[in-house]
């Protein structure tokens, strides 16, 4: 039976609308799929961005230091802290002991210094030793010079004199040992506490004190040029040798363990850079603190800054702690091993931990 032209037209029109509807449905599905993919991609990018920002957000650390220490200043200047995600701010003090004491008022987050102030701090607060920076060699000991007024010709002449010491430092211990080696005691002299070597320099020139222990090439040169003053001896002629440690609050160790580990990583790289690039380090200290380049180069010749923890470090701490307890400087005794936490040093530089208390 033949199909009429009218029927053919209806059929073609129906097929057209069916095809059009099918295209719209498929197009909608495709758009929905693309939209979902785009949304998922955007969400993923946003999540990754947040994660990246979290990973890259630097940890802010206030680090106690002195103006003439080349290692920490180089770590900041050369970007070693930044490399390990630390936004470091150096808080400068007259002595390392002042920097250690600043931990108590949270002015600094990490500090370093000699055994004496370190032990004093950990005996009184929630702090722990996380690494050593080395112990004295004979060359290091020679850098501590004893300057006296001209009328003092021998150690025994110190009896009845006024002797300078920097408050909170090991110098009171050094005086005790030095005087004992020459038949004198602390009761035979008057110790005058001062805040820094510049203050001691002025006091010695004015005759307000009679003897001062000094270290650092720039400061030694200053005392050598002073009128009416002479060098009597140096610390290498005594039995005193000191260690140096790094100390951090227990709270920082608990809450930001990765920051503590990264601090040690940066510090080790900086200490190696200092040894390998003395001229550049001398330029850094001249630029930042105006220390004469020749003074920095002299100091670098005997620099013994190594991020580690050795038997020598532990023996130095033990010996110093015994003295401090026996003389009432540490009022409440404690277990030294409880105040030494080497897990971060062992993670970062395992070969540098040669003794575990």
UniProtKB/TrEMBL annotation:
Stored InterPro entries: SsuA/THI5
Keyword Transcription regulation in annotation: no
Main location: periplasm
Keywords, ordered alphabetically: Signal
Position of the signal peptide: 1-32
One matching Pfam family: NMT1
Domain annotation SsuA/THI5-like: ranges: 74-280
Protein's cellular compartments: Periplasm
Gene Ontology cellular-component annotations: periplasmic space
Gene3D superfamilies membership: Periplasmic binding protein-like II
Family: Belongs to the bacterial solute-binding protein SsuA/TauA family.
Protein name per UniProt: ABC transporter substrate-binding protein
Organism: Paenibacillus oralis
